[in-house]
Every structure is written in C-alpha cells, then in structure tokens.
Amino acid sequence: MNFTRAPSPYKVPPFAERIAHFAPATKINLSMRPTPVHTWNLHSAVPDIPPDIQFYIKRDDMTGAGTSGNKIRKLEFLIADAISKGCDTVITAGGVQSNHARATAVVAKELGLEAHVFLRTREHEHPEKLGSKGNVLFHRMLGVQVHLVRPVSYLAGLLPKMRLLQEKLAAEGKNAYLIGIGGSNEIGVWGYIDAFNELLTQGVREFTDIVVAVGSGGTASGLAIGNYLAGRPVRVHAVTVCDTPAYFYGHLNEMLAKLGLDQEVDAQDILHITEAKGLGYARSTEEELELGLQISRSTGIMLDPVYTLKAIYGMISELKKGKSPLRSSRRILFVHTGGVFGLFDGRIEPHLDSSLARTWRP
Question: Which member of 8, 44, 68, 98 is catalytic?
Fold first, then answer.
C-alpha cells in the first residue's frame, strides 16, 4: 500500500467536463473529506429570525487539524502545481491572523517545502510585538520565515515584495512558488468547484440557498461556478468581511473569463453578495462578539471573528429585512469555512463569563 502524498492526475466532476481544458492537471489529497452536513438550530441562539427557515451547516472547519478550514481545498491544487513545477519553496501573504498563511505553512512543512509568509500589521516595525496568539503560534512552532509589512494592497504593495523575495531565493538556487492572498486564483478556485461535487453527493438539491463568507473570493467564486455548471440547483449568497460587493463581483467575473465562461454568464447572475464588514477586516463590534457567544453556547458551533461570525451576522441582518433575496429562503446551508484559531487572539476574553468557574465545594 502506498502512503506517500504526492500530486496525482485530476479528473474534473462530470458537470465541469466542458471546461476541463482549463482545469489543473494535478491535485494532492491533503484534507479530510467529505466534511459533514447537519442540521443547525440557529433559532435557539437567535429567536427573532424568521421561524419558517430551516438552517443546516457544512463543516469545512473539519477539513483537518492544523490545516482546518476552506483554504486547504484550494491548496490541494496550488501545492500540487508547485510540486509539479519542481518548486522547493512557497511564498504567500495575508493579514497577521491569516488562516490561509497558517494552512500554507503547515502544508509546506508537512511536505518538506520551505515556507515564507508576508503578514500585514500596523506593528510591522516591531516584530517583538508579534506575539504567539492564534495563527501566529503556528508560524512560530513551525519555524517558518515571517516577513512583517505595513497594511498595503496586494497588487501594488505585497506582490512586488513577494516577487523580490522570489528573485532573491532564486539567486540562492531555490525555486519559489507564489501563492496570492487566500489562494484565490484560477487554480485555487477549483477547490470549491470540486467541493460542489461533494455537495451534490450530500443532497445539496434539498436546500434552497447556500451562504458563505467571502474574504478573498475563491471559495464563493468556486461555489457559484460549480452551482452554475451543475444547473443551479440552489442560490448562492456570499457575505463580505472586507472590500465591497463590486470588488468580489469583479473577481468572480475574472474567474469566469479565465474559465471561458464570461461570454455566457455574468457574476451577478450566479452570486448574490451582501456587505457585512462592519468596522473593517478583522475588526469586531461588541454586538458581533456577543452574537458569537450566543451561538456557541446554544449550538456548540464556534465562529471565528474575522470570517464566519461576520458572515452569520450579515446573514441574520439580511433575513430581518423584508426585501432581502434571502428572505424567500426555506432551507439555508451555511458553509463553515473554519478559522477557529482566530478565536485565540484574545479579543473574546472580556466577553466570557468568569462566574462559570468556581471552586468545588460539596
């Protein structure tokens, strides 16, 4: 029996055969699949949402341990591409608590690749303040090289720095593979086109709507494209945790163009996007954090403050609007994209109930 993890030829799902010539050639199995789908009693945590809607949850927070979350599905294609091209190093980027950067670093170390991560932080001039909370702990334990930079845009700020590092590593005889923010390019998008096939085997046609957080665009784009190619059995909704709906519609249109689908469909025809970034990316309101605690205490589901909690907050806000497209939903499937390690960055601590811990006295 062969237990070696290496790229193998990728066969596209039947519904995607007409765009198979755009698909990645290889994939490497890195995640625990299929992830479960089960009922979710969200009404117990939020009693004032419409009682006629049933909620279910797709547990992509259970795709692995150190690699848990949605990012690993994209990395199965991206890392396979890197290895197939003979790369020995990966370079990626994200926010200081980036789930994608953490998952990339873990996979790189598991497969014997060198890893470099660029992390955006206002404390970029003070690496001693980086600490070791949340996803940062993984970088420290893995021993990956972390490059701190001030908060800048990806294309104009981060990408040039990543390319410069790639050139420096090449001068040392290394072959580095660049992975953009969230792994959300024309290769990474296949992670959730492929995942839609998994959903079809799990009875996705029984639901009316799918809701997911959108932070870099790859997961929402993959689900929307997969749903479109499969005949649109459900409606797909994305809730932004950063940027604007216009930005993510633009990203989806870019993916459609790279898959040869732009002449037959537009992003707004296959994906509904609503905004819920609140105070901004990775910044939480008191109301959001309290909602997260209500949900964990009532349902046992942990939502991270950067992605899934904002998405649920936005979804609930939409459901309370009379004219929202979500209001006609009957059976909503929420895709939990992980990020649980973000809960350990300390922001939730002031909201915890200290009275629940007592000295035992019979």
Answer: 98
